[in-house]
Design brief:
Layout (H helix, E strand, L loop, with lengths): L33 H23 L6 H8 L3 H7 L3 H24 L8 H13 L2 H9 L6 H26 L11 H19 L11 H11 L4
Helix pairs in contact: 1-2, 1-3, 1-4, 1-6, 4-5, 4-7, 5-9, 6-8, 7-8
């Protein structure tokens, strides 16, 4: 997690994890379409917003701050987003999409009920890869509005459903596994993991989330088995 050369107090995202900073638009005439220009501008604005919220908190960032950090005009901002909430929601949607996609790929390639540490690490490592983004959307966005909370619930519910389905598939082959665990059990596990990760992100002394894995793995492994 590196600081911005513009402001050493504002940490930079990790390039290529959730966002990738595009090159600045060329001066003068260029061959880019309007859609291509907007894609570049939206990415720069979402990155600026994410970095600012990670540094200052959800309620301390305004359009003027995002415009200044992205080195863009207010006109360009409002060509990309209706308002600050629109920018925030787009950035949060990116976080959720990448996180769920990363976890789902790992889950579906993993023997879920027998490789619990791998499942937990897939989540923690996705957050660990970019702690700036993780702190913004995992921690600061607890103060966001209903739309963001609904998006979070949908994402966590989807992950819980994938876990349940994979567990039931494996329970057909392993009699030690409990095949009748409801989705609510897996959802509780997902929420517990999320809350522990959020608490760790809120602790400035914690730099590696992966220390959460061993005790969680032991608890979840026992919870998936009969009796």
């Amino acid at each position: 997690m590196s600081a911005s050369p513009q402001n050493p107090d504002i940490p930079r995202i990790t390039e290529g994890a959730f966002f990738t900073t595009p090159q600045r638009l060329p001066r003068g005439p260029h061959g880019l379409t309007r859609d291509e220009v907007q894609t570049i501008q939206r990415e720069r604005l979402m990155i600026a917003y994410t970095e600012l919220v990670a540094a200052r908190g959800y309620h301390a960032v305004g359009v003027r701050d995002v415009v200044a950090r992205s080195s863009m005009s207010r006109t360009a901002f409002y060509e990309c987003f209706d308002n600050l909430d629109d920018c925030a929601d787009a950035a949060y949607q990116r976080f959720i999409t990448v996180l769920v996609s990363t976890m789902t790929e790992r889950l579906r390639a993993t023997d879920v009920s027998h490789e619990v540490p791998t499942v937990i690490l897939s989540y923690l490592e996705a957050l660990q890869f970019d702690l700036v983004v993780a702190r913004t959307f995992q921690l600061e966005f607890d103060a966001a509005g209903p739309a963001s909370r609904r998006r979070r619930r949908d994402a966590l519910g989807f992950i819980a459903t994938v876990l349940r389905d994979e567990h039931r598939r494996l329970a057909e082959l392993d009699p030690s596994l409990d095949p009748d665990l409801p989705t609510s059990v897996f959802l509780a596990m997902v929420y517990a993991l999320r809350q522990l990760a959020s608490d760790a992100l809120d602790d400035p002394d914690v730099t590696d989330l992966r220390h959460l894995e061993p005790p969680l793995s032991a608890w979840l492994t026992r919870s998936l088995r009969r009796g």
